[in-house]
Amino acid sequence: METKLLEITTENMEQAARMIADGKLVAFPTETVYGLGADAMNGEAVGKVYAAKGRPSDNPMIVHIADKKDLARLTPVVTEVMKALMEAFWPGPLTMIVNKLPGIPDATTGGLDTVGIRMPSDETARALIRQSGCPIAAPSANISGRPSPTTAQHVVTDLAGKIDAILMGDECQVGIESTVVDVTGENPMILRPGIITRGELENAVVKIGKKVELDPALLVN
Q: From the CA atom positions of the chain, what is the Rg in Å?
């Protein structure tokens, strides 16, 4: 497969968005790491992401959206906890695990009844999502087990010849994956630490009487 290396221009962004809409794979920059994007509502396209990365198919994807209104396509309800965290950290490096709507393919969620959603702050990422017309499932754009890519060249090294295109953006500002928080329970629970700290999360939800818990798995040495 020939992988197109696309500089960030208006024309190339339109091309990349069409590719996503057509079920193809496009790597793109976010503020955390480069993501490998596919139409989150297209199970066949998401399957290609697992194949390109060598990723186990029961490992759920994070779905990226461009605007808060896009949540209505993915989850049945927006809770007070979700609203508080969105107000504090979206757009930005926070992923929320929420209950999913039935239309989301099992390939995207790893067969779970929940889905991880985030709204990146990177303008290129959000423009790609808007122009493609669909939420984008996007794990890190690397071979599974290798370091997460923070530059376009990292993606070229790992995935050239395996995916359809790479948007050649700038180096990622954050450089580590997003903080992942499960908001389906009584209190939000950190499943994966990131640049957003437990204290910052606590500050966002204390006003609605919530505390932030840690996944017990994070406490095991």
A: 17
What is the per-residue pLDDT across 23-48, written as a single tens digit (0 to 9) for each?
999 999 999 999 999 999 999 999 99
Is 79 buried (19+), middle (13-18) or exposed (0-12) by CB count in 10 A? middle
Q: Tell me the pTM.
A: 0.96
- Cβ neighbours around 199 below 10 Å, total: 9
Taking the C-alpha atoms of residue 136 and residue 167, their distance in angstroms, rounded to an integer, is 15
State pLDDT tens for residues 105-133: 999 999 999 999 999 999 999 999 999 99
CA 201 → CA 77, 80, 183, 194, distances in Å? 20, 14, 12, 11
**CA-wise closest residue to 124 among 38, 31, 49, 195:** 31
- Beta-strand ranges (E) seen in 108-218 are 114-118, 136-137, 165-168, 179-182, 189-192, 213-214
SS3 content of the chain, % helix, strand, coil (to 5): 35, 20, 45
Task: Quote the CA–CA distance of 84 and 203 in Å, as a whole number.
Answer: 10
Return the beta strands (E) in the chain as ranges. Answer: 4-7, 26-28, 35-39, 62-64, 94-99, 114-118, 136-137, 165-168, 179-182, 189-192, 213-214
Tell me which H or E stretch contains 89: helix 80-89
Phi and psi, residue 178, nearest 5°: -65, 155
